Write the structure tokens for this entry.
Amino acid sequence: MLLNKINEVRAEVKRWRAEGLKVGLVPTMGALHEGHLSLIKRAKAECDKVVVSVFVNPIQFGPSEDFDKYPRTLEADTTLCDNESVDIVFAPNANEMYGGGRLSNDTLTYVCPPYFFVDKLCGKSRVGHFDGVCTVVMKLFNIVQPDFAYFGQKDAQQVIIIKKMVKDLNIPIEIIQCPIVREESGLALSSRNKYLSEQGKKDALVLNKILNNIKSCYKKGVTDIESLKETAYSFLTEKHELEYLEIYNCNDLEEQKEANDESIALIACRVDGVRLIDNIYFKEV
Ligand code: PAF
């Protein structure tokens, strides 16, 4: 069932709750791919009812980012959701979510995650991005009031920040983190892969290669963070514009001097003009 109105979703979920049903939420910005489908399938397996939200959230994009050209494929998304027997596809427009006013934090209430978690990795170049993410996710949580919410590990910083928000604000929702889904080539699935040329897709494999190489060096006994990071440079060519490569603690994004099983390596790199991110846990979770 495709719904656009907050009140319609609320009314439907209220009926489910009255029957004691467990509700799962999969928040997305649409352009659904196998990565999203893995979240949806997991939610379907673990919950009685599943809501997938499809909303390209304007307040998490910076002024020079790809909000306008972000792929919008609601019809195809709805078909994919129907095929997975999703109970509600919630696809509001910006007016429904934020009202007609100006979208800024001098007119809207924002949820702002702590500086420590935001002032690094993607948050450093995408100023205000995680305020926009936490604000919309909090709104979706309040609208749907799910028992479980499903997020992909590909956006590792996002999941860590959302878990922190849930803990700090005592939100009674369990966050389920699902593994990255990759093409056979190793490329992590992303809605932004649509922007890549065929050659760009090949050049993009370097992200996964760098991460795998770092992990295999760690497995062979290298723990010094700088030495691990240095192993990346031989993979990079003039086609790759590295934005960051960091190794942090996977629970709280604390810096580490020595890597251990709680480490995560995270990379952002522009390939073919497209900003791509990927990550790897040193111990599989
Ligand atoms: O990961 C995404 O697609 C978005 O950041 C999210 C969580 C749906 C919020 O808009």
Summary: The pocket of pantoate is lined by residues 27-29, 57, 60, 133, 136-137, 155, 158 (CB under 6 Å).
